Structures are given as structure tokens and as C-alpha cells.
Predict the structure of guanylate cyclase.
Amino acid sequence: EIIEKVQRPPPLCRPAVSADQAPLECIHLMKECWSEQPEKRPTIDQVFDQFKSINKGRKTNIIDSMLRMLEQYSSNLEDLIRERTEELEIEKQKTDKLLTQMLPPSVAEALKMGTPVEPEYFEEVTLYFSDIVGFTTISAMSEPIEVVDLLNDLYTLFDAIIGSHDVYKVETIGDAYMVASGLPKRNGNRHAGEIANMSLDILSSVGTFKMRHMPEVPVRIRIGLHSG
């Protein structure tokens, strides 16, 4: 019931303490601590100093112990908040990285900001498509995890290659690999050359690629380009 009142003012829920129940300095300090304006609330250190001033050297073991406990609790709470904030930042970076892997950076930023993403028209673009020759047969002769390892190894190799070209990986579906150049960043008339050079590099790398579970079986890929 008290929590409900504190959470949903007005009226402000505050204890009534008469002057004969505590020193006036303590009552004044208590009122400062529950101020609605955070900047007007004293810090734990200031509370500690004021209590020492109020007590004027008298033995106050209980109060000192209480204040030390509050001070320690405040310090522990700050450390916990800092730790949780760091964990949250790490998770946010993971989410941002995953989002930029799935979508163009400009689109990902717009989605994070909550703004609508307007479709764009690109006049000059070259697309690359490739798949694995005989993938259905290879899959039939392999365990599911072996197929996953094959695709992961092959497309990790492709991802490393496209990093040195002005291209954007659109997606991979099964054994299909799709790349574009000229979008989402326009590059004039260089898109065809970028995709062509990338294709030759991929072909060259596939020539020495070996499957883990069937190293004696050569891997061949079928590549198609469309420029316009």
C-alpha cells in the first residue's frame, strides 16, 4: 500500500516526524534526502558528514554502523550498475553487428532510429549469383552437420574475398550466394568490374577448396552475373 502511494503521487507520501521525535537537524536532513529534485538530495558522503556534525563527537556506534552500511551498499550498487551497463553495451554491439550483417548499414541505422525506410532506385547495378554444382548429390551422401560445415567453410572463404572488393553481400540461401555492386553505395560504372574481379577471385579459391568429410571430391561452383 505504501509502495503504491509512493509510486503514484499526488499527494506525495512522506512520513510525519514531529520535533520531539528527533533532532531538528536530523529531520531537516531527512527532508533533503526525499527531495523531488535529485540535485538537491545530499550524497551518502554528505549525509555521513552531516551526521558526524550533528552528533558532535558523541558515541553513535549504531548510526555510524548504519551509515557505513549505506555507504557500502551505495558503492556496491554503483559497481553493479556499471557492470550491468557494460553487459548491456556488449549485447547492443552484438545486436548492431547482427543487424548490419542482415541489412545495409543505412537501412539498419534507419530502423534503429525508428524512421521509415524509403525504397531507392539504382540505375547501374551488377548482381552475382552462384551455387554448388551437384549440391543435392553431395547432401545425399553427407550427414546434416557435414553439409553445414561445408557451407560454413565455403562461404566464410567467400566472405573473406568480397571484403577486398566494392561489393555488398545480399544473402545466402542454402547453397546460393548472392552479391551486388553499385548498391547500397553507388560506384558509377565500376560495379561490373568489381563483380567480375570478385568472381575470378572466388573461382581461384574454389580450385583449392577441400570438403572436410570428402576431401577427394572436388567442389565446383556455377556463377552467373547480370549487369544493367
